[in-house]
Amino acid sequence: MRAALLRRLNQFAERRLPALTRLRQPEPLPIELGRRRIYIVPTAFGLGFGMLLLVMLVGALNYANNAALLLTCMLGAASAASMLLAFRTLDGLSLRGIRAGHAIAGDPLELVLDFAARRPRESVRLDCGGESLAFAVKGTTELRLRLATTRRGWQALPRLKLWNTWPLGLFRAWSWLHPRQSVLVWPRPEIAGPPPMLPADARERLRPQAGEELAGLRDYRRGDAPRHIAWKASARHHDLLVKDFDRPEPRETWRLDWQALRALDHEARIARLARWLGEAEAQGRRYSLQLPNERIDVDSGPAHYAHCMSALAVLP
Amino acid sequence: MTSPATTPLAARSFDLAALGLAAVLALHAPHLPWWLSAALAPILCLRWWLRRRRQARTPAWLKLPLLAALLLAIVSWYGNLFGQEPGAALAVGLLVLKLLETETVRDARVGMSFACFTLMAALLFDQSLVATTTVALGLLPPLAVLRTLEPGRQAPPALWRELLPGLGLLAAALPLALFAFLLLPRLNSPLWGAPNASEQRTGLSDRMTPSGFTRLLVDDSPALRVSFDGSPPPPDQRYFRAFVMSHYDGISWTYRDVANQPPVPVEASRTIRYRISLEPTRQRVLPTLDVPLAAPAGASLRRDHEVIADRPVDSLRDYTLESATRYRLEPQLGRYHARWLQLPAGYNPRTLALGRSWRARYGSDDAAIVQAALALFHDGGFRYTLAPAPLGRDAMDDFLFDTREGFCEHYSSAFTVLMRAAGIPARVVTGYQGGYWNAMGRYLLVRNSDAHAWSEVWLAGRGWVRIDPTAAVRPQRISLGAAAAAPGQLPWYQDGWLQSLRNHWDIVNRWWNLSVNGFDALRQRGLLQPFGIRETDTSTLALLLAMACVLCMGAGLAWVWRRREPEDAAVAALHRLERKLARLGVIRQAGEGPRDYLQRAARALPAQHDRLIELMHHYLELRYARPEPTTESLRALRRAVRDFPVVRMVK
């Protein structure tokens, strides 16, 4: 009974006063800023300007100078109106999505934040970690942010602070965003180590394959097949020219296996596998990855590499 | 995060700041010494050019000497640093020097706040409608600078378009500003000293040196506005007396304020009531039409019926008076007879000789002597000019027998000296004469250029009689004003149709003076009388002000909170359904689509399963199947939502 009451109270509080609880609870995207979660305080400059207005007011009243008083009132009212504009810059602004790039632990990870607003906004600022950005929103705006990473695995997004002091710098309006979203950080490969041990039959299956791509023309050498002679090009030279085809060096497939690295400890195994994956991808090899709980079949290409790295990243 | 103390100032912000300072300088230029404006303007331009074209900073060794030079120049010119004019000069100078070291965002913020303050100081010198509007427009560059200091703006527009948002902001602020202006409790007495009283404006002085008036005669700012009970007096009766000058030392006539003598008796046979609204003069004298019978509150009537206020007129002053226009002033001269015959010894021998010769010729006929003097001015080859030749030690001799050109001061002075030489009690009176009758506003506008000097002579049986010797030379001066009397000698803007346009325009200034500048503590207390509140005290005003603030903020918040999105009717129906389902415990998650949500709700509420699935299909079809939903199906959806039961089913 009491627990139910508390829960209901909590729910009510969260529904009515999300500002109170928003700091603690991550929320799903999209997040739209509303009046219940935007705070406004004067900036230091705003306080100083207020003091100046006060001096002007007292001076105008003292000298019974109504023109100056009217001017001071106008300036003061304009300052107050600027507070509303600061609020309006954030109100209705929504964070629709966050796309995360890939990064290995220790390197910054690029986030793309997708903001949208019906009205154009100017001079919105975003603080995230140590980074601060200023941007304008017109329709939708994509914002690139670099997030520092330390270790592999899922990493929750930090709180984002959206704020602005538009238009006069007198008031600061801000709101906290805590998106319920995590980004995956890949393991950091070891710096150097041995190449993978290949199974005995790996090399046999390799056959030299004639290349398909025309790489260029070269002088005729004895033994070149006549069908490779470039007759048209040769007609303009005094020597015969031969079409040279690209013939990639045959590379064996790497079958990388978690179990083959028993000698190393857990993280070192991951680091070595990550390095092998990177080398294989860089050399254009085909490779597969066998993990304790998952098997990824032979393939190549960036998507395959990402798949393998992500599988490594989420290992316990 | 970069702090404002280190963020360098963008080119656009600097341009606008320089523009703002130029505006401040221009608004203050009329009352700054010319050399200060002439020195500050090139500094401003040079600084702008160096930073924008050469990316140069001001060297540190230059700033301090410039500051010292500014202080030194102001102190040596004014004698001190405090007070209205030196203070304004110092503020403008410091502001321009501030631009020399404006390199960062923080510098610009400080500079622009100070610019706002300095702009307000310009209103201490001139509070007319035009001045106030210009100063308000002068706020636009500082506001624009503050806007440009915010990072992350969209592509900046053209320079002049940067000023427009500030205008919008000020316009939006106007209602609250007006409320605050009306309701801010005024001070009954100043907290500290009023503006420095020793600084005099061009205005009537209690000392008249022939040719000292010229500055005044080309100053055509309004001096006073007069409205009459009944019809105004004819133009040749519009003499406003200020000072009655008795003492002549050979160079100038002076007024001697004697406070302890009662006003001399006056026998009035015709009087007129009128109300004068006097522009600030920083002096104590209150000009009055002809001979006032009593002094208004806060002022006293002196012996010769001058009205002297208790305090200098530092702000617009309204007073109502009754004056005699046909009268016998001081019918018996009594023991003061000798005072009005005083002449300095050893000056103007030829003039004195002429006066004595008239006495010898006309005997005791004082009126004939007066006529003889007027005839001399009229037929003696005298010329009215605002730029007379300079006079020597025996000024009146030089004027009467040599140069024979001058304006009211010369004529009244020479006339009075002649009368005294002939033994007729005489004195110089200064004040205003003429004015422009504004028929639409039904008031008389008297400008400083209407300043005038004439004479009064004492004739037995008639008392003091006004004699205007200038009228003998140039009658137009009296009937048409100074501009008609000296064609081509006044500045171009005081001539012809433009002057008439300005006379007509003055009704706006009068309205501004009455409604804004004249809105004092007294008027404020009577503010709410139309609403049945007899006496408005400070706490009532504060309460009303707070209410007005709340009202304006409420209006502002209503504007801010309004979301401009015409809601789709189908979406509105769905929202209604959402609220109903939320009461049943099925709350829509953020990011949950309508299909997922309603399916979940159908699973959670088995009793309503079919109904919810049907609603879902209905909604999805309305929203996504057709570009334009039909009204019947929309109405059906609404009805279905309305009929959806909220009562919790008994399981």
Automatic annotation (TrEMBL), chain A:
Keyword line: Membrane, Transmembrane, Transmembrane helix
Highest taxon of the lineage: Bacteria
Residues passing through the membrane, by range: 38-61, 67-87
Entry protein name: DUF58 domain-containing protein
UniProtKB/TrEMBL annotation, chain B:
Ranges of residues in domain Transglutaminase-like: 400-471
Residues passing through the membrane, by range: 34-50, 62-80, 114-143, 163-184, 541-561
Highest taxon listed in the record's lineage: Bacteria
Pfam families: DUF4129, TgpA_N, Transglut_core
Protein known as: DUF3488 and DUF4129 domain-containing transglutaminase family protein
InterPro entries reported for this sequence: Bact_TGase-like, Papain-like_cys_pep_sf, TgpA-like_C, TgpA_N, Transglutaminase-like
Keywords: Membrane, Transmembrane, Transmembrane helix
Organism of provenance: Rhodanobacter geophilus
